[in-house]
Amino acid sequence: MKLTLSVIKADIGGYVGHSHMHPRLMEVASETLDGAKASGLLVDFKVLHCGDDLELIMTHTKGEEDPDIHKLSWDTFLRCTEVAKEMKLYGAGQDLLADAFSGNVKGMGPGVAEMEFEERKSEPVIIFMADKTSPGAWNKPLFRMFADPFCTAGLVIDPSMHGGFRFDVLDVIDNKRIELSCPEEMYDLLVFLGASSRYMVRGVYRKSDGEVAAKASVQRLNIMAGRYVGKDDPVLIVRSQSGFPAVGEVLEPFSFPHLVEGWMRGSHNGPFMPVSFKDANPTRFDGPPRVIAAGFQLCGGMLVGPVDMFDDPSFDYARQKALEIAEYMRRHGPFEPHRLGLEEMEYTTLPSVMEKLKGRFESLD
Ligand code: F6R
Ligand code: MG
Ligand code: MG
Fold first, then answer.
1. Full-model pTM
2. Counting Cβ atoms within 10 Å, is residue 187 exposed (0-12), middle (13-18) or buried (19+)?
């Protein structure tokens, strides 16, 4: 039996500001999805949050991009939005409603990562969920998991992984995709993955049999008015063990808090800090950007879990490092490379400042 794992997320209201999730919204989401489970639409579900993003983790047998599953998610977010509005939570419905007060013009709609597969004899999966960043944040960890033998020992010593993996990469500027194979096209792949605000990994596949290994949410990425505006707090599904990277190989890339974009007003770089569920509430300068990891064993589609995978002292060093990097970056204030380049910022006063000062620029030609 083919099973589909769908992770669909939206920011439908923050508490306080853009920092946390009100528990009532999670209750309302759970009640709604409970109904769908009782009716047989869902096999199972779990509701989590990362910062101000509500994460619906669902299993079913209807395949990817199924209208009923997507409508269920949309209706769940709408119900939660109603409650968020009643409580006057911040930016109620910000990812759903064009008239919501969120202060910027991000792409609209929930983020989605979905994969369909035949459940293995034992099926460990890890779902990563992040706040205050964009799907480009997954490029480096995905490269490390599926292409870097200094991270994933299995690429070298496990015959079932030795053939390598294929990366499906999206170009968000020209709206194109390309597939590249590792290890043989590794240097070509890195030309693109290193430019993580333009090129983003959508999925990873095992070359020996084409099995899906990882899927990321990239839906809201689009160009508006000649400018890329769809930064979104992303999710990522990774299958693990027995021909895929071991759990420890999947988590290992997050032991280094690399710089990602999306901190404060979607306009700053900051360290990607791996945290436990209870610490996924970004407050310092609306950050620093956070990532949580929920581990599950699937059992006939039932989500046995979650295990809070970063709730482990072995990630304390990464967290400490992230705090040091956060401090270092913050000292730059409004200067690059803390603040993003002019073209990358979600908020900008450049056009109005330019308009105001245009007569005062003197040509030096
Ligand atoms: C970043 C984020 C926050 C807001 C900031 C300003 O993705 O959500 O850093 O950008 O708090 O929010 P508004 O414009 O709603 O006052
Ligand atoms: Mg928000
Ligand atoms: Mg968010």
1. 0.95
2. exposed
